[in-house]
Design a protein that fits this description.
Elements (H helix, E strand, L loop, with lengths): L16 E4 L90 H11 L3 E6 L5 H11 L2 H10 L1 E6 L11 H22 L6 E5 L5 E6 L6 H27 L4 E4 L5 E10 L2 E5 L4 E6 L5 H13 L3
Parallel strand pairs: 2-3
Antiparallel strand pairs: 1-9, 2-4, 4-5, 6-7, 7-8, 8-9
């Protein structure tokens, strides 16, 4: 059995199970409906497959802006493997067990969940490194911009937000004193690791990532009265990221990818790779494979399937 390459899953999708696949081991189609668009097992354009260690294009006050057409570097196809190469559809983990808990406010506190949401929802990720207790400029940035109703309305629509607070405390009131102490140590280690990873050299430090996790904007420091300027930079970075994402998505739609909805209107952008007796196997652009049944899909999706089956005499 080959090692499963980790991928961050999150959920707004009521599909029953997921795993990964790769070009070396295509899924076994159960009917001719299995491939509805070509383009290989994942359909990821070649220019999006190359590995990149580039930290992104820095964006600083008065400095340069992110370049248009920033690539969305999802998992390269050569890093996607089957859990079981002999039977890729066996023992698929339940997606319901992998779904994140609902966020308690506008800001996520888990990088894993925030990145999962950004990838699934196709939105840029805003990361805010703050010291809420000791940094006057962090308080000013919050008061003058992040806590305002106008920013809240815009960000709720355009971004996924993650706050990394140096003073972050335990959120579980039922923990014992010993467990709380252990958790505080873990939180401090978590904050320190992310500061090192993103090279956050002080407070506030704000980063903008595209949905694939690539840093496309760095904004260090803040001065009182510059909320409009700071917000303008964020809007520019979001627009660049959105344009790149739409271009990437349009290319995959030409290869058979489409947006699927369940009965609760939760959605996933994926391609149908196999169909048999009402069961579908979908693959997302990052290689994640999901299984669901057509009776769990929205009426428009079921109608689309019915049309496709008629075309293929199924």
């Amino acid at each position: 059995m080959r090692r499963l390459v980790p991928w961050l899953l999150a959920g707004l999708v009521a599909l029953s199970s997921c795993t990964h696949t790769g070009p070396g081991h295509p899924p076994k189609p159960a009917a001719a409906l299995g491939d509805m668009g070509g383009g290989g097992s994942s359909g990821i354009p070649p220019q999006l497959r190359a590995k990149s260690k580039d930290g992104g294009t820095p964006v600083t006050p008065g400095g340069n802006a992110p370049k248009s057409g920033t690539p969305l570097n999802f998992t390269p196809e050569d890093e996607i493997v089957f859990t079981d190469p002999d039977n890729p559809d066996s023992k698929l983990p339940e997606l319901s067990a992998l779904l994140p808990t609902p966020k308690r406010g506008p800001w996520e506190i888990s990088e894993t969940i925030a990145k999962q949401r950004a990838a699934r929802e196709g939105k840029p990720l805003l990361i805010w490194f703050t010291d809420s207790a000791h940094s006057p400029m962090c308080k000013a940035l919050s008061q003058e911009l992040f806590a305002t109703p106008d920013f809240e309305k815009w960000a709720s629509e355009k971004l996924i937000r993650l706050r990394i607070d140096a003073q972050q405390q335990s959120t579980d009131p039922d923990l014992s004193l010993d467990d709380k102490g252990t958790q505080l140590v873990e939180i401090k280690d978590y904050v320190a690791r992310l500061k090192k990873q993103y090279k956050a050299l002080g407070y506030p430090s704000v980063f903008l990532l595209n949905p694939s996790g690539e840093v496309i904007g760095r904004y260090r420091g803040y001065k009182r009265g510059e909320a409009a300027y700071f917000w303008g930079q964020l809007k520019h970075g979001e627009a660049v990221s959105a344009a790149a994402y739409q271009s990437w998505r349009s290319g995959l739609e030409n290869k058979g990818y489409r947006e699927w909805h369940d009965r609760k209107d939760r959605k996933v952008f994926a391609k149908l790779t196999a169909y048999a007796n009402g069961t579908l196997i979908l693959i997302e652009p990052d290689g994640t494979r999901c299984r669901t049944h057509e009776n769990q899909l929205s009426d428009p999706d079921r109608n689309w399937l019915a049309d496709q089956k008629k075309l293929r005499g199924l």
